[in-house]
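Ops channel
N.P.: pipeline sanity check, posting one input/output pair.
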């Protein structure tokens, strides 16, 4: 009799759980999340899918309507790929009733390809504001945001004891885990413990924190705190990049461009450089400019190369300042303009770009875009030469040989020629 009672009780509990309803707390587009734009899934017409990231404390058993491929599940995040123009879907859960979603109800007539959306769900029976998305603990969104804000303020203010105490009030929150990892890693507000720091960093990364994913990737790449593992680093760089982390996009592009630990793929490199460049990263802007200049992964287009170099140069990239100077000096994609070339080379040289120092010397020596000045030419050649730039070393040797800007000195000329690897 007791056995039958417990079986019946179990069935009732199961039926009750499956009878609970979920409702949508929020549904919004996230333009900085580039998952949909850069992932490879396409619909039957060859158009890129949209991506909906669903956060809920339950298993999504299936999706009906417009879904392309399998559901990607990472902890509380369930990621589904939907065909462009999908108007509605039905979500089937393990422990809740099915939920029908019509996107127009949330201001989106259809799903747009290459766009990423985030949907948060909760039990209808939950108290107002209570969401089951960040952990198994219930908390209001406003309360969680307030605590995270206080954690950052305490940490930035070097009040580490307070920051750690606040983190421990939401220990399963990926933001709190990230900051606890910082503090355990540096021994701030707590005894230094790298193993605990790494564990917390990984937990945060696995819950989708892009900063934690990027930092975990750098740890695997560096091989100091943990054994070096570049393939694992690339996995985490990719996960962070897919969420719009600019540094991760840039680094992932580098791997593809170099063919390091992945098959060399200029198109893949160009895709990631472009994604980071469009978000304003100067070094990525310079890199995609170089790919347009060389026709690597994209059609060769000197005008586009100049546009990207200019954006990057204005953003402070000394490499782009040098590259833009070269474009003006050699009339590539622009009308030859030695004055503009001089301006670009000077900025790059003053920012520490060794090759620009040599080119600045050339312009002073020839009086191109600036008044001829052998003394200035020697100064910049010497700066580059002392940084082991072979071109500057060779040009400085010639200045000593010919007595331009310095007293003629064959022995000094020979010394610089040897440094440059030139047999006089």
């Amino acid at each position: 009799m007791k056995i039958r009672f417990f079986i019946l009780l179990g069935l009732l509990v199961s039926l009750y759980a499956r009878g609970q309803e979920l409702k949508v707390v929020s549904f919004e587009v996230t333009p900085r999340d580039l998952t949909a734009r850069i992932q490879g899934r396409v619909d039957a017409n060859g158009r890129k899918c949209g991506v909906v990231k669903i956060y809920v404390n339950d298993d999504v058993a299936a999706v009906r309507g417009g879904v392309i491929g399998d559901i990607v599940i990472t902890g509380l995040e369930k990621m589904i790929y939907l065909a462009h123009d999908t108007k509605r879907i039905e979500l089937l859960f393990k422990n809740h009733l099915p939920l029908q979603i019509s996107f127009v109800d949330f201001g989106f007539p259809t799903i747009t390809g290459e766009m990423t959306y985030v949907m948060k769900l909760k039990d209808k029976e939950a108290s107002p504001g209570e969401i089951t998305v960040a952990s198994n603990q219930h908390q209001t969104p406003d309360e969680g945001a307030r605590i995270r804000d206080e954690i950052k303020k305490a940490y930035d203010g070097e009040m580490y004891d307070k920051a750690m105490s606040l983190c421990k009030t939401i220990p399963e929150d990926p933001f709190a885990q990230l900051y606890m990892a910082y503090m355990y890693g540096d021994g701030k507000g707590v005894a230094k413990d790298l193993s605990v720091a790494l564990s917390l960093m990984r937990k945060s990364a696995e819950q989708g924190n892009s900063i934690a994913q990027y930092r975990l990737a750098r740890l695997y790449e560096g091989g100091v705190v943990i054994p070096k593992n570049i393939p694992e680093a690339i996995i985490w760089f990719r996960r962070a990049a897919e969420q719009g982390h600019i540094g991760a996009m840039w680094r992932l592009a580098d791997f593809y461009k170099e063919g390091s630990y992945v098959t060399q793929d200029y198109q893949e490199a160009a895709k990631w450089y472009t994604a980071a460049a469009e978000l304003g990263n100067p070094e990525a802007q310079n890199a995609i400019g170089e790919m347009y200049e060389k026709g690597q992964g994209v059609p060769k287009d000197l005008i586009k190369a100049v546009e990207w170099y200019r954006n990057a140069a204005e953003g402070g990239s000394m490499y782009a300042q040098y590259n833009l100077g070269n474009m003006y000096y050699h009339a590539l994609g622009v009308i030859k303009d030695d004055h503009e070339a001089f301006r670009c080379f000077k900025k790059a040289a003053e920012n520490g770009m060794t090759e620009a120092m040599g080119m600045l010397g050339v312009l002073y020596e020839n009086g191109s875009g600036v008044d001829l000045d052998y003394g200035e030419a020697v100064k910049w050649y010497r700066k580059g030469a002392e940084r082991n730039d072979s071109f500057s070393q060779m040009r400085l040797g010639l200045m000593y040989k010919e007595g331009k800007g310095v007293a003629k000195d064959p022995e000094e000329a020979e010394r610089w020629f040897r440094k440059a690897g030139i047999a006089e």
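N.P.: looks fine end to end. The longest strand covers residues 22-29.
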